[in-house]
Amino acid sequence: MMSYKAKTLASLIEAIQQNQLLLPHIQRPFVWERDQMRRLFDSLMRNYPIQTLLFWRTKSHIKARRFLTTVEWDPDLSRHYDRERSKAGVDKMFVLDGQQRLQTLYALFAGSVRNEKQAGAEEEAWFDLTSGTQVDAEGVLYPLQFSAGPLELPCYRLRDLLEKDAQQSAWDIGDRINAELDGRLQESPEQQSARRNRVQKNLAMLSSLLLEEKYFWIEELDGVNKSLPYERILEIFIRVNSGGTKLSSSDLMFAAMKEGWEQVEENIEGVVHLLNEGKLEFDKTFALKCLVVAHGHSAELGPDKFGSQQEEEQLLKKLSDNWPQAEKTFAQLRDFIRHDLALYSDKVIRSYSCFVPLFDYLFHNPAPDERNRRLMRAYYYKSQLFNWYSSQTDGLINVLHGIVGKKLAGFPLPDIKTYFLSRGYTVELAQAHLTDMRLRYIVLNLIYVARFGSSPFDVKYEGNEPQIDHIYPQSSLRSQLGLGTVDINHLGNYRFIGARENLRKRAEKPAEYFSRLAADSVDISRHLLVTEFSDDPKKLAFDRQTYLKFRERRLEEILKISAEVVNAELVPAPPSAA
Questions:
Q1: Contacts of the segment 230-239: beta carbons below 8 A, 24+ positions apart
Q2: How far is the C-alpha of 559 from the C-alpha of 190, rounded, in Å?
Q3: Is beta strand 92-97 parallel, antiparallel or unpaired with respect to 112-115?
Q4: How many CB atoms neighbour CB 516 within 10 A?
Q5: Are 146 and 115 in contact (CB under 8 A)?
Q6: Model confidence pLDDT, tens digit, residues 355-369
């Protein structure tokens, strides 16, 4: 199935030029920066070993992409596919591992790189033939330059080795260049001799890199003479790409999708930006997962998602045809996150996976009424508080698709609860859950939103996000009342306070502090919650009995407010407006 052989760089470049060596559509675009390209060249000139290249020979119908003659960092890949070479029955060789290295060397010795900052000028690689005696500030011994125009000696255009100097030996090229430099440079005899030797040595190494079969070793998977299913190739591809330039599952899948739907990644990036608005951390994998699940496919992502070319084309057509509906659904999800959940910080989200079933439901059941949005809110908070998506998230999403991914009379929260209950998860909020301090940000945000309709994290100024504050100061509770950490760090004693206000806050006792705020027309009820104390903050006496009474009364109020949201299915819906 696999052979192992050496190849010359010149033969690899020739195979690329003749479209005999190609890239499969599952490969993503070239991503190396110029510095990485320079460092590969430096490593080769130092005779450092580089990893084996992995090729795949096949006659299957696989979309084949040509290498870039001119490297650009945001290419239109659709222009580089070779439809004739992609056809079934055509013998072709694909690069499964080594694209970045081969594309770099092809550009250095036979192509160019585009400089977008210089009106798209095409720049070629030039090498200082006198280098190699000392490393530069970046640790490079054999530096390259990229230039759109010719450079003076001792800089040498690497493409000349395969073009105008192709018929000359390295020694003859060196003799010619050294003769030119002899007439230009002011050197002592010793310096001239050392420079001549350096030029000859560098040209000999360049010639050796191009023409000798000892630097580039190829492992070749033969899918022509031996059975090698496409699924097996995908498995190998994913494994070999788990190191080096690491590819995520969505990167691999986007690469596989782009030839059939060029705008897919741009569209996905747009909705991710819409969802995040600089505050949350949704990613492309999430959005892509939403799309494929809503269209009846499993949540697991990767180029093997398609199984076959026909399945790929069918799914891409569905995704492309239904994109307007999906885009509207993402907008509805965004509105639900902002207006119903009021989520403005990653700190109050334990898992983003729970949003995939919400998208799935909205895709098939757009514009839910207030009753169903209440149930959707309850589902969200249950998933966060009870950690429903702590493991096997793709499997959970697949199961929930069978529950929510269809036209329904309403949001099926009872069915979702039944499923998670069968897996041993909690499904209803109780007071014991409020003692888990890991949930304090989620619970406190819920309270502020449910009670006052806004999130403390919805701030106008960067750096003023809320912080956890003790209503009864923790240092005084410890030093004056002798209370321990468990009694002090209690949800009943927690509130949110803006970062700037927290810096200004003085070491005041709660009665004085909240009385001062009330006198300044601050609504202290949003912090204290308990009417008795918010109506008369002077009742917040600093003694053990009052503190424990206030803390427990406030915890009861927190539970009451939280339960109305989290256990919404158990609470009678408010009467609809006439």
A1: 230/60, 230/62, 230/308, 231/304, 231/307, 233/56, 233/58, 233/96, 234/26, 234/302, 234/303, 234/304, 235/304, 236/54, 236/96, 237/24, 237/26, 237/96, 237/97, 237/303, 238/302, 238/303, 238/304
A2: 88
A3: unpaired
A4: 14
A5: yes
A6: 999 999 999 999 999
Encoded amino acid at 9, one letter: L
Residue 68 identity: L
Q: Dihedrals φ, ψ of 71, to 5°?
A: -70, 130
pLDDT tens-place string over residues 343-353 = 999 999 999 99
Radius of gyration of the chain (CA): 33
CA 523 centroid distance within chain: 41
DSSP string, 232-283: HHHHHHHHHTTSSS---HHHHHHHHHTTT-TTHHHHHHHHHHHHHTTTS---
Six-digit token string for 558: 């927190």
> Is the backbone peptide bond immediately before 24 cis, with ω within 30 degrees of 0?
no
Amino acid at 336: F
Q: Where are the beta strands (DSSP E) in 431-528?
A: 466-470, 494-498
How far apart (Å, rounded) are the C-alpha atoms in residues 145 and 92?
Answer: 34
Read off the pLDDT of residues 456-473 as tens digits, 9 standing for 90 and up: 888 777 667 888 999 999
CA 308 to chain centre: 26
Contact indicator for 29, 75 with CB cutoff of 8 Å? yes
CA distance linking residue 46 with residue 202, whole number of Å: 10
The model carries a pTM of 0.66
Model confidence over 305-347: pLDDT tens digits? 655 667 777 888 888 899 999 999 999 999 999 999 999 999 9
Write the burial class of residue 5 (CB in 10 Å: 0-12 exposed, 13-18 middle, 19+ buried). Answer: exposed
pLDDT at 578 over 50: no
